[in-house]
Amino acid sequence: MNQNPIVKLAEAIQSKQPAILATVIEVKGASPAKVGALIILLEDGTTAGTVGGGKLEAAILADAHTALHEGAPRLSHYSLTEEGADAVGTLCGGEVTVFIQPFLPPPQLIIVGGGHIGRPLKVMGEAAGFDVITVDVEPGRADIPELAAVLLTADSYVVLITTDHVSDEAALRLVIGSPARYIGMIGSRTKCGAILDHLKADGITPDALQRVYAPIGLDLGGPSPEEIAVAILAEVIAVRHGRGLEESQISFRRLL
User: In this structure, are 118 and 236 located in the same domain?
Assistant: First the structure.
């Protein structure tokens, strides 16, 4: 039995899974879809509800996939004809307009190591709309099981601010191969360069290491924990929105 689409959408939002809601808002002429018909598309391709089936529904789902990847709503028009603008390849002859709305989970900010910088960063990150996860680390440990248990996605932003280089390196090894959009590591150029050299010696490619923003944060000049937190969050937000950071980022290639 096809699950109620609104229930499915609510479950996706509750579990912080991406979902797309497509709603038929206008119908002209003959159409298998009716005004108010709904269909939900989940990231794994699962659907709930229907907007008429057949080629029309396939076209709507294709546009829903696009909206999912772009993260922006769209108003789509479909002509139930074999030829012409917006044609879907049917003979019904009607026209359908659909509003396609993405429901995406908030971006994820993972703070590895709490402390005097992590505390204000958590508050600021939540105020900026991030789902903040703080992973406390026992100093000097070469394993961080709490971090290994975090599911990282392409909308995850990882901040490594532990109190020692052993923990920072252990955390970096865990996340360097993840799809995380941002990985930043605190520390001096000497410390960051040494850690990155260790990973390079162990076979991590320069391309992978170039993803690391180290030392972390934009160079705003403020020395206090709160100001450093602002600098880190500013860099994260800039990366998330695709702003160029070539002058502020000191990555692996610039530490060579």
Answer: yes
Global model pTM greater than 0.85 = no
The phi, psi pair for 92, rounded to 5°, reads -60, -40
The CA distance from 154 to 134, in Å, is 18
Phi, psi of 213 (to 5 degrees): -90, 105
For 63, the domain range is 5-103
Taking phi over 0 as left and psi of -120 to 50 as alpha, with beta for the rest, 16 belongs to left
Q: Give how many domains the chain has, as a whole number.
A: 2
pLDDT digits (tens, 9 = 90+) for 16-30: 889 999 999 999 999
Q: Tell me how far CA of residue 116 lies from CA of 226, 228, 236, in angstroms.
A: 8, 10, 19
DSSP conformation class of 189: H
Q: Which two tokens stand for residue 133?
A: 């996860």
Burial class (CB in 10 A: 0-12, 13-18, 19+), 96: buried
First-to-last CA distance in the chain? 59
Give the Cα separation of 100 and 66 in Å (integer): 10
* Per-residue pLDDT reduced to its tens digit, 152-204: 988 999 999 887 788 888 888 889 989 999 999 988 888 888 999 998 998 98
Any idea what the CATH number is for the domain that residue 236 is in? 3.40.50.720
Tell which of 103, 133, 158 closes a domain. 103
